[in-house]
Write a structure and sequence with these properties.
about 0% strand; mainly alpha; 3 helices
Length: about 80
């Protein structure tokens, strides 16, 4: 495990402390979780961009053409 010295504005530190206390966790755990969530979001965005680059509009339309043209089930209308 690594140690990181972090400077926060007083107002942000106060909010972090209050939220961590509400969740019953330490400030360190709160910040670790927040960093992990941000990393996950960024990595997911990168993954989806890579997948989109491999996509093919022609293949998408071919699959979409296989969907039967039927009315929606009751309660599923727009």
């Amino acid at each position: 495990m690594s140690t990181l010295s972090l400077r926060l504005p007083d107002s942000l530190h106060k909010q972090v402390r209050e939220l961590a206390q509400q969740d019953g966790i330490s400030i360190n755990q709160f910040i670790s979780t927040a960093v992990a969530e941000k990393l996950s979001a960024l990595m997911t965005e990168d993954y989806l961009e890579q997948r989109a680059q491999r996509g093919s509009r022609e293949k998408f339309l071919a699959v979409l053409a296989k969907v039967p043209d039927v009315p929606p089930e009751p309660g599923d209308e727009i």
